[in-house]
Amino acid sequence: MLEVECHSGHRGDEEPRLVVLDGKRLAAEVIDRWYHGAPGCEEGTRRIFKLRLEDGRELFIEQETGSGVWRKRPESPVGRTEES
């Protein structure tokens, strides 16, 4: 599990603003975001974010929409490219 602090945007969806990695709190900028899973189905649906951290690293994280649990992803999701 990953510690993520969020901010509610104009649509009410929470957006990551800070992550805790290796005990360090790092500000995060959302570069890209998308959903993965069956449309209209909460079960198994994930919100995926590509972040740029204040130290310059890029990070992919995901949140299970049902449980709200955040996880770090090892890489870009299959089928998703930088241009998508």
Helix and strand arrangement:
Layout: E1 3-8, E2 14-21, E3 24-36, E4 46-53, E5 58-64, E6 70-73
Antiparallel strand pairs: 1-2, 2-3, 3-4, 4-5, 5-6
C-alpha termini separation: 27 Å
Radius of gyration: 13 Å
Structural class, judged by helices and strands?
mainly beta
Unreliable segments (pLDDT under 50, ≥5 consecutive)?
Answer: none
- Strand arrangement within the widest β-sheet reads 1-2-3-4-5-6
The tally of strands reads 6
* Inertia-based shape: globular
Share of helix, binned: under 10%
Q: How much of the sequence is in beta strands?
A: over 45%
How much is the average pLDDT?
82
Main sheet overview: 6 strands, antiparallel
Helix-strand topology string: EEEEEE
Total number of helices: 0
Describe this structure in words.
The protein contains no helices and 6 strands. By secondary structure, it is an all-beta fold. Strands 1-2-3-4-5-6 form a 6-stranded antiparallel β-sheet, with no helix packed on it. The termini are far apart.
Brief account:
With 84 residues, this protein is mainly β. Helix content is 0%, strand content 55%. The chain has a six-stranded antiparallel β-sheet with strand order 1-2-3-4-5-6, with no helix packed on it.
